[in-house]
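Example 3.2
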Amino acid sequence: MRIISCAIAVAAVFAATEASAQTVNLTGMYRCVEACRAGPVGSPAFVTQNGPDMNLLNEAGQPSRAWPDSFAPATRIWADAWDVGAVYSPDGMTIQFDNGTIWRRDLGPPPPPLRIRARGQAALR
């Protein structure tokens, strides 16, 4: 009975570790800002994440599957086809690959400024 309890506790620890392995959603468009493989600095790159699994598309248009690195799943990913690891920032805004390539999240252009009309301006037109 005691062995079963220990086995359940160990299974719960592994399940909790796996579930909390990656807390940041990296899905989105990025821009290559350093050591880009092809194209100029600022070329787009993309990450699509589904749970712990990811699909990456670099600035050269080369795809790769990726997943949390087994040695540091909360801070690193491994890109299989490119045979390279990467560390990502806690806020998910930067991904830095071991080969020197750096991607920064592209948030798009800022929203247009709001036009605030003072009362009575509509009547003056």
